[in-house]
Amino acid sequence: MAPPKQLITTHLGKNGPQVSPVGLRLMGASGMYGNPASDNERLAFLVPRIKWARRFGILVSDIYGDSEHLLGKWFAANPSKRKGIFLTTKFGHPKRDLANLQGTRAMNTNPEYFHDALEASLKRLGLPYIDLYYIHRLDRMEYNTFCLDIESPKYKLLETARDLGVAIVAYSPLGNGLLSGTLWSKEDFTKPGDLHGGMPWFSDDHFKTNLAIVDKIREIAKAKGVTAAQFTLAWILAQGEDLFAILGTTKAHRVAENLGSLDIIVNPEQGKVVGGRFPAAIMEYCFADTPPLEA
């Protein structure tokens, strides 16, 4: 399915700017799922993505390899494109080493580090401003057809966000590629530097069970004449106009496929699959109170 001729936008939060409900994360393009391609290949890869832009959201991070440097090079070569991009980046991991975070999940969100990290990101991007600045993973929760924890009465995250008029951004809505229906064996993610192998839903204990669920999603999607990824994204967006999806890829045609989900209508209840995701220790890490400011 081709991307929509007119990119749909909606308010990011009650009084926020108009942004496309489906955005792009440059984590994969910076080598988090294997060694990155050359700068020329990656910069060329950005071109077909951006040509559909009308406040198209792009997410980078100071911990996603050289994603900020890469996008900075692209903006330097295409300065007129900046106004069509809703640019976000993230901070919070002082070590800035995503590949070696296991057991070293210390966060730094104090005001001094906030300003230093922001200045460093702006320098790498070569820009005077960004549109939205995230804290990296302090209270992040994924939202996809595998994981519905934000709806839980225990956390009341979705309920509270809606009471406050705050948008929900679905991080990794395709489960790091699992819900795309394109990963069927461990051989699909064995490249050097690929982080998939360390994710619980790809472990030997869970992978086969999760694939069975993905197969059911594919069947529903096939009946609608769409891909599993498109159905999953359309399902997420059908949960409310305050839902946004940010996802990564290294293939230009996948961007077109993902944007095609904006034309799909699904019943919000259709395809709902409830399942576990993270071990308890990691779940505790996903929800945390903001540290109090020191006097």
UniProtKB/TrEMBL annotation:
Tell me which UniProt keywords the record has, alphabetically: Oxidoreductase
One Gene Ontology term of the molecular function aspect: oxidoreductase activity
Q: What's a Pfam family in this record?
A: Aldo_ket_red
Which segments of the protein form a coiled coil according to its record? none
Show the GO cellular component annotation of the record.
cytoplasm
Task: Fetch the InterPro entries from UniProt.
Answer: Aldo-Keto_reductase, NAD(P)_OxRdtase_dom_sf, NADP_OxRdtase_dom
Q: Which residues form the NADP-dependent oxidoreductase domain?
A: 61-141, 143-267
Classification via Gene3D superfamilies = NADP-dependent oxidoreductase domain (3.20.20.100)
Descriptive protein name: NADP-dependent oxidoreductase domain
Which classification does the entry list for the species? Eukaryota, Fungi, Dikarya, Ascomycota, Pezizomycotina
